[in-house]
Amino acid sequence: MNTASPYLLEGHKITKRFGGLTAVHQVDLAIRPGEIVGLIGPNGSGKTTLFNCLSRLLPIDEGKVIFKGKDITRRKPFQVARMGMSRTFQVIRVYRKMTVLENMLISRQWRGEGLLQMLRPSHPDTERRAHELLDFLMLGHLKHELAGRLSGGQRRLLEIGMALMPDPDLLLLDEATSGVNPTLIETIKDRIRALNREQGKAFLLVEHNIEFIADMCERVYVLNFGELLAEGDPQSIMNNEAVIEAYFGA
Amino acid sequence: MGFLRRVWRLISANGGIYSWLTLIAILALYPLLTPSGAALLTATQLFMLITVSSNWNLIGGMTGYVDFGHAVFFGIGAYLMGILVTVVPDYILFSPQLGFWQALPLAGLGAMVFALLIGVPTLRLKGPYFSIAMLGTFVAMREIIRLLKPFTGGGEGLDLPPVLNRTRDYYFMLIFMGVVVALMWWIRRSEFGHSLLAIREDEVGAEMRGIDTTRHKIIAFMIAAFFTGVAGAFWAFQNTYIDPDVVFIEQRTVEMVMSSMLGGLGTVWGPPLGAFILYMLQDLVWANFYNLHLFILGVLLIFIVLFVPEGIIGTLGDRSSTSLGRLLSRGFNRGERTMEERA
Ligand SMILES: Nc1ncnc2c1ncn2[C@@H]1O[C@H](COP(=O)(O)OP(=O)(O)O)[C@@H](O)[C@H]1O
Ligand SMILES: [Mg+2]
């Protein structure tokens, strides 16, 4: 890691346009190692688009993204994933026709990619890690179930599991609690805290659920119409006039 | 269906090892059992269809890139063999007069290199766009071969050294088929194979989980092209004559696609089973209603698409199967995905 910067991930003046629409405009954000940061904003404010820019799924029009001290603005998504940034998706992307365990094995630590290496079956370490993570996420009993037959909440957990497989340092979770029942939300919260405390993993959480954010995050960014509206600790954000206006006003 | 399911379980279970040994013994002894050269030729052609279909299935079924021009690799293999072994150089500028065994791997490598060159731009395309680009590549290559007369003999074609040995051909193709099917079986169980299926089911998701999708697709494409090229090279040698119109036939690709679809796209045993049924059926139809044979194949294709879209093995429950419809709609679904994500 670059010692000059205290940050794990930095976005500098990120701008993303879709035709005439500027979905994200000049957004600056930074996450320290081991931090849990929230990203909130009304529907359509650009949260998912910002995620897509940070994880390199979408090319950005202006600005740059620095991860672990390296400029990743031009890197490919798979390279960023292997550097230790994992993410989940607002619209769940699990492999429905594969079992829970097979889903976990799709995502894995990469130990080089010679053809002969790839032609081997899954490494025992990879399988062990998959089993451990499934138990940790309380999906152990569903290992051999098809992912398509899980409930919405279980699929969210599975996606988090897949994101954890390569042992990332930063996880971007896009609406990890939407469509999840309250009991499972507690599970998700609990697991995020455990990962953060015990393994020092950093999180960037996009959420609708303000309570969840207030509960989990040390710092919150607020987006509105693609622009950064406010940044600060959850308490001050909740009392911020501009934020209240954006959410409830007009 | 219950009966079929039971037979299938018998074959796929470990206890099925005896069925396998019996099958291998029968195939190995077949030339001794039948004196008829025609029967051997038929069997050799069936093995060839199984081989090329399995290769088509690697890129088309397992990776999800439906190649409507895959016979281009067969053609390149055939022509490289023709050029490399031709003895009479009166119309041909370049002819090193290699032997069969020297030319064979070179033909495969040539097809593989071509797959790399054409794959880099075309494998970026999704769904039907890739299919049509490959169909175009196939048609263009036929004309290029026709135009490169000093090397390829143009429309007059090339005569290869006539060596007729049906028994040798039979064993060659039997072993070659065995190697290819075993490789597909192995790939399906490897991390590489898992990644290919992930690319087929959700390419963006695969990339975001650290899979170098471009590299995987190109490697799969190159493997499929190599073995198809070798098959084409063998075919040229066995046929002893090639010209653009006997080598570059659209129907070669159609047969690969149909075998895979009938047996089960994306499954290891689908193409061999589909090729077998298709071949038997074709034989029957050719013998009895020659005039109708293309018509009947067309009807069969429609039947598969409508009633067994995931093929026989897919219908029997193999989860690695998929349908042509799903693969071809990919280019169109992608936009929707991002739209959904906006919510
Ligand atoms: N692929 C796309 N093409 C065109 N417009 C898009 C696309 N993705 C998002 N948008 C638009 O960008 C804006 C921000 O969307 P999004 O990032 O999904 O918001 P949020 O996640 O905060 O709800 C919206 O106006 C949305 O319609
Ligand atoms: Mg969103």
Query: Beta-strand percentage of chain A?
Result: 15-25%
Total domain units of chain B: 1
- Name of the CATH superfamily of chain A: P-loop containing nucleotide triphosphate hydrolases
What sequence of helices (H) and strands (E) makes up the elements of chain B?
HHHHHHHEHHHHEHHHHHHH
Low-confidence stretches of chain A: none
Tell how many strands the DSSP assignment of chain A holds: 10
Mean pLDDT of chain B: 88
Structural class of chain A: alpha/beta
Calculate Rg of chain B over CA atoms.
20 Å
Q: How many structural domains can be distinguished in the coordinates of chain A?
A: 1
3D shape of chain A: globular
Bound molecules: adenosine-5'-diphosphate, magnesium ion
> Can you count the helices of chain A?
10
Share of residues in helices of chain B: over 70%
Order of helices and strands of chain A: EEEHEEHEHHHHEHEHEEHH
Strand order of the largest sheet of chain A: 6-7-8-3-9-10
- How would you classify the quaternary structure? heterodimer
Quick structural gist:
The complex is a heterodimer of chains A (250) and B (343). Chain A is α/β, with parallel strands linked by helices and 250 residues long. Chain A has helices at 47-54, 77-83, 100-106, 115-118, 124-136, 152-164, 182-199, 210-216, 234-238, 241-248, and strands at residues 9-18, 21-31, 36-40, 62-67, 70-71, 85-87, 170-174, 202-206, 219-224, 227-232.
In words, what does this structure look like?
The complex is a heterodimer of chains A (250) and B (343). Chain A is an alpha/beta fold. Chain A is built from ten helices and ten strands. In chain A, the strands form two sheets. In chain A, strands 6-7-8-3-9-10 form a six-stranded mixed beta sheet, with helices on both faces. In chain A, strands 2-1-4-5 form a four-stranded antiparallel beta sheet, with helices on one face. Chain A is globular and about 55 Å long. The N and C termini of chain A lie far apart (45 Å). Chain B has one domain (23-268). Helices cover 76% and strands 1% of the residues of chain B. In chain B, helix 4 packs antiparallel against helix 5 (100-122) and helix 8 (166-189) crosses helix 9 (191-201). The N and C termini of chain B lie far apart (44 Å). Classes of the chains: A alpha/beta (250), B mainly alpha (343). Chain A binds chain B through residues 43-44, 48, 55, 57, 76-78, 81-82, 86-87, 89-91, 93, 95-98, 102, 105-108, 110, 113, 115, 118-123, 146, 162, 165-166, and chain B through 186-187, 189-192, 194-195, 197-198, 201-202, 204-213, 215, 219, 319, 337, 340-343. The structure holds adenosine-5'-diphosphate (ADP) and magnesium ion (MG). Magnesium ion binds at residues 47-48, 90 of chain A.
